[in-house]
Amino acid sequence: MDPAPVPSGKWADLRTRILSAVVMVAVGAVEIWLGGLAFAVLVVALTGVMIWELATMTAPLERRSALVVAGVAGVALVAALVLKTEVAVLFLTVPSVALLLTPRRDQRLAGGYALAIMLAGYGLVELREIGGTQVILWLVAVVVASDVLGYFAGRMLGGPKFWPAISPKKTWSGTVAGWIGAALVGLVVVLATGASWALVPFSALVAFAGQMGDIAESWVKRRAGVKDASNLIPGHGGALDRFDALIGAVVVVMALRLVLPVTGLFGG
Prior knowledge:
By secondary structure, the protein is mostly helical. The protein is built from 10 helices and 2 strands, in the order αααααααββααα. Helix 5 runs antiparallel to helix 6. The longest helix has 26 residues. The chain starts with 13 loop residues before the first helix and ends in a 12-residue tail after the last helix.
């Protein structure tokens, strides 16, 4: 029997992306369901990896120092999660300070993005503890739906670019499809659980925040002159390439929690 044809052209990476995504979804689902220490450990590990990728991209010749910064980021996040006070914010800034004080390209950009990564890591664990499994599943579903619909709509429909100077592949058709997909996720949650109808437009807003997270990471990579943050995940590049949208989404949700009862949208 002849081997199955290998996809080519704009769909060439689809099979690898799907296989990698299945593995990540399986691992993520188990960790989200377990919650507690298991989920926190996964988030801390991912945060350290993403800080390592950022440090490596902005200072490619300083690989040893990148590992040190990643380790510091993991310890700082653990300290912040244990303390759970206003002082926690200070720990979250430690990796940013480390990047700002070491020779590298675009120090301020690296420092700012490192803070976003740390806030997202802290936010994921806190949202899991406060809102439970349903909030994290909704958040991940919104980001995944936006990404998947954007991927297929962008390649099938094409059209004008969303921000060609930073992300040449992202189109308006894919961007809008992502908003629609996220809103549908919100609608499903509302119909299935009786959550507030405000969750529908809020889901679209969170999807937009995720897309901005994608744009931000594309900007960092473009400034660094690299295609992928690393090659850790087949078909997806690095952890930052896969979780950049989640970073933007979590940061915005955490910011909105300061003024809005976000978890209250779920009826809790």
